[in-house]
Amino acid sequence: MVEVRFDSYSAADTVEIGKKIGVALRGGEIIAYKGGLGAGKTTMTRGIAIGMGLPDTVSSPTFAIVNEYTGGRLRLCHFDMYRITTPEALDSVGYYDYIADDTVICVEWSENTEDILDENIVICIENDPDDADHRTVTIRSERKLI
Q: Which one of 42, 43, 59, 67 has the lowest number of neighbouring Cβ atoms within 10 Å?
């Protein structure tokens, strides 16, 4: 497992980190985010989408459960698992139908499904309690992405 760490001091920094990840993705990856409310998970996904050649239209999937983005070299499916906590609930939202070699899946609130997700990339975004603009981004993956 490869682990790298970055500091982000703005949404623009987080997008830039995401872009670099997006460029390195090949398809078939499942990215599990860990981080609290407002940490920057959707912002990171926006950068990943840009790096994948998708338009910068990423929005939070909180109410839709999943947002799908196409038109780049790969498809991106962005899930919110805040209300999903069982294998049955995961199945009921059609999660398994999205897994494909030409697709990248990003999962917010992966903590709720960590026992049932088969992620191969974990991105932890931690807020600094002493600096509201600072986040520490830790990326764990099977291969070097950045």
A: 59
